[in-house]
Amino acid sequence: MRELINDGELEPRARVNESELTERFGISRTPLREAIKILATEGLLELLPNRGARVASISRTELEEMIEIVAGLEATACDIACRVISDAEIEAIGVKHDAMIEAWKARDEAPYFRLNREIHEAIMLASRNTKLRSLYIGLTGRIQRTRYTAHQTDEQWSQAVDEHEQMIRYLRARDGDALAAVMRHHIRSKKPVIAAMYGEEDG
């Protein structure tokens, strides 16, 4: 269920269909309802009195605050990664980057978004910092789909690609300060776009 929410198959405010999910997972309602309670404590689901549950919505303020923290975590990962990353890891990220650029040129969104996410996660993994990665995974679940699909115009998409080009250059140069600065700007620049597309009004 967590994956369905993180991948966007279950969108914010969507009702949880227990009958459909029990059939899909091949389980009874009891373990499903236990899972629902756990996901509610994590903030992924909202329990509705006598009406089941729905996927939690995210206020604009909360969304912007989460993105700011993610920007800090990823910038820190960039700084650390540049000190410990191996040549093989840099090469693997470079291969993903080249494939992502090809997907962008073809306007093939699905592989572009997947590769984009994999690049960010690979840099985080290359930091070798398990505590940092744990915080990152715990926070990004609720906004993972929105942050990688939120580009409203060709200009905004092109800007994101340009920033990725800078990021790969700094990674290859192992320039942690420069990579961290670009990464922080890269993530922060999406705040207004994501908030406008997916954030629920406060109040």
UniProtKB/TrEMBL annotation:
Enumerate the PROSITE patterns for this protein. HTH_GNTR
Domain annotation HTH gntR-type: ranges:
1-58
- Domain of life according to the entry: Bacteria
Q: Which UniProt keywords apply?
A: DNA-binding, Transcription, Transcription regulation
Under InterPro entries, the record lists:
GntR_C, TF_FadR/GntR_C, Tscrpt_reg_HTH_GntR, WH-like_DNA-bd_sf, WH_DNA-bd_sf
What PANTHER family does this protein map onto? TRANSCRIPTIONAL REGULATOR, GNTR FAMILY (PTHR43537), TRANSCRIPTIONAL REGULATORY PROTEIN (PTHR43537:SF50)
Q: What is this protein called?
A: HTH-type transcriptional repressor RspR
Gene that specifies this protein: rspR_4
